[in-house]
Write a structure and sequence with these properties.
Layout: E1 11-12, E2 19-24, H1 26-38, E3 42-49, E4 66-73, E5 76-83, E6 85-87, E7 90-94, H2 103-114, E8 116-119, E9 168-173, E10 185-191, E11 194-201, H3 209-213, H4 222-225, H5 233-247, H6 254-282, H7 286-307, E12 316-317, E13 320-321, H8 327-353, H9 355-361, H10 369-375, H11 379-383, H12 391-394, H13 415-438, E14 456-463, E15 468-475, E16 484-490, H14 493-503, H15 512-519, H16 524-527
Parallel strand pairs: 2-5, 7-8
Antiparallel strand pairs: 1-2, 3-4, 4-5, 6-7, 9-10, 10-11, 12-13, 14-15, 15-16
Helix pairs in contact: 5-6, 6-7, 6-13, 6-15, 7-8, 8-13
Length: 528
């Protein structure tokens, strides 16, 4: 694996997807970003990491914190690791937001959590810290005091960008909303009902997840990973387990890999069923909400009956899965899939022919492919704007490598396109589930994961229903009880939340709930 223009040898990690790791200098940090951008690649994640306790094999200097970035090109994912230097008493690294706008909030979060700063960055406002801890305290920094010992701090006044002009006024929405949803603040600058600008303020559901991961045994931390974002519990658990199995060079049984994929596709179907109903409801088509809600409930009850949990939490474990299925359960899932598919095809025809729905969907919240590419829009929303990336198709591993997954995409980039991609993905997931259940190989469903004696790292990269999830894991060796040094869990919502601000521009305020739901981004997965 290689990044063009970067004379650097990447170490391939032992994962079922191509992921390479390398350390870089400050100069190479920018060269790599530029090369990836020029090749049409994208930024996958950016996070801070603790100093190397006992440097070896050229892995930096003791006491130096690090910053990491993961990129995606057609060749796979690349994890770059930069040991930082101090300038005027601050740990700094070169800013990437001029090349990858999605990096801006990731860099601000790294500053809040780890005290590392992007040099010459335009936006240095706090992102995750709402005043819950002092500005000079960094929870993920090595040696940080326990939060219980911190003095009380005042809530911070966030400096929103102001839009001025005749007839311009602001509409603040949230963080507490009218429905049972997670908190987020949206500041609209409008003239009449037309939106000139939207600025978001997130971080209200920050829970200290990444710090808590370092306090858990590696084999048990999967339970917390699976609770980062409840609607993606399967995807997060698989990504974490892939990272742990990568670090320990564990190959899971074939049947376990197939069962994991069944669980992942069932999670995708459940999410799409819920979203398609909610999108109909936001366009005043309550019939759609009623029908899709009924189908989603049937689907979740099927998961409960077979896998023991409606959302399939804790079904994926290190080394494989915790639940097997017998022939009767397999037949139940196949028949349920056939029944749901038949009804969804009828609902698809109703949605397509309903003039009122299409009037609300078409041209609303449009993100043109050029803008989507520039801003790094990814996942389902990205594919609706011609960003044709899907880990299951680009780098298929078992069982996807033998299933010829059809990637759903669209070029219009509006609500209608995001609805169309959901329908296409739903039908394809139903096909994949049926095929996997019919051809499910025999064998063990789990194996033992033996943690390595030496310090190690691994990565997981999984296409969840919302988009690609990435987990970077660093483990200490046996002399430090194999503890987790750092576990970064990255949700595609980091890339997509900023794009939502652009999608609403020029639309009217009443269309925001519809546009927002068409993206359906995670608060919890973003805020950690």
């Amino acid at each position: 694996m290689q990044i063009p223009e970067l004379a650097l040898e990447f170490k391939a990690l032992a994962a079922p997807v191509p992921i390479g790791y390398a350390q870089v200098t400050a100069a190479q940090w920018r060269v790599a970003a530029s090369a990836v951008r020029d090749e049409g690649g994208r930024l996958l994640a950016l996070w801070a990491a603790p100093a190397v306790a006992n440097p070896s094999d050229g892995e930096g200097t003791a006491g130096q914190p690090r910053v990491c970035a993961a990129y995606v090109t057609l060749d796979g994912a690349f994890w770059l690791d930069l040991a930082l230097s101090q300038v005027n008493g601050q740990w700094v690294y070169p800013d990437l937001s001029d090349m990858f706008p999605a990096a801006a909030r990731m860099q601000r979060a790294a500053a809040d959590l780890s005290g590392v700063h992007a040099q010459n960055a335009q936006d240095t406002r706090p992102w995750l810290n709402h005043g819950a801890w002092p500005a000079d305290y960094f929870p993920l920094q090595a040696g940080a005091a326990p939060a219980a010992e911190l003095p009380a701090t005042a809530l911070q006044n966030y400096d929103f960008v102001r839009v001025e002009g005749d007839g311009v006024h602001e509409i603040p929405v949230g963080p507490v909303h009218a429905g049972i949803i997670e908190p987020g603040h949206f500041r609209f600058s409008v003239v009449g009902e037309k939106v000139l600008r939207l600025e978001q303020r997130l971080g209200y559901t920050h829970k200290g997840t990444e710090l808590r991961m370092t306090q858990l045994p590696p084999l048990q931390a999967v339970r917390l990973a699976g609770r980062v974002s409840g609607d993606s519990t399967v995807a997060y658990a698989w990504a974490y387990c892939m990272a742990l199995e990568s670090a320990s060079q564990t190959t899971i049984p074939v049947r376990a890999a197939w069962l994991r994929a069944v669980l992942l596709e069932r999670e995708r179907v459940a999410a799409h069923l819920g979203d398609l109903g909610a999108l109909g409801n936001d366009a005043a088509f309550a019939f759609g909400l009623a029908q899709f809600s009924r189908l989603r409930e049937d689907w979740l009850r099927g998961s409960k009956a077979v896998f023991g949990h409606r959302l399939m939490m804790d079904c994926i474990v290190p080394g494989g899965v915790s639940v097997d299925i017998d022939r009767a359960q397999r037949d139940l899932l196949i028949h349920l899939g056939e029944a749901v598919e038949k009804e969804v095809r009828t609902l698809f025809r109703i949605y397509e022919s309903h003039a009122g729905l299409q009037d609300r969907f078409m041209t609303t919240g449009r993100v043109l492919p050029e803008l989507a590419s520039r801003l790094g829009l990814t996942g389902l929303a990205g594919r609706a704007s011609s960003q044709v990336w899907d880990v299951r198709c680009d780098h298929p591993f078992a069982p996807y490598s033998g299933l010829n997954v059809a990637m759903a995409s669209h070029h219009n980039g509006d609500v209608a396109a995001r609805v169309a991609v959901r329908f296409d993905e739903l039908f394809e997931s139903l096909r994949l589930i049926r095929r996997m259940l019919e051809d499910l190989p025999v064998g063990d469903i789990a194996c033992t994961v033996a943690l390595p004696a030496q310090a190690s790292r691994g990565a997981g990269w999984v296409e969840g229903w919302r988009g690609e999830l990435f987990v970077a894991l660093e483990l200490a060796g046996a002399e430090q009880a194999h503890r987790i040094e750092r576990c970064h869990l990255h949700d595609p919502s980091w890339q997509n939340w900023p794009v939502l601000e652009h999608a609403i521009m020029g639309n009217i305020v009443p269309d925001f709930p519809l546009i927002n739901k068409s993206f359906n981004l995670s608060y919890s997965g973003h805020d950690l």
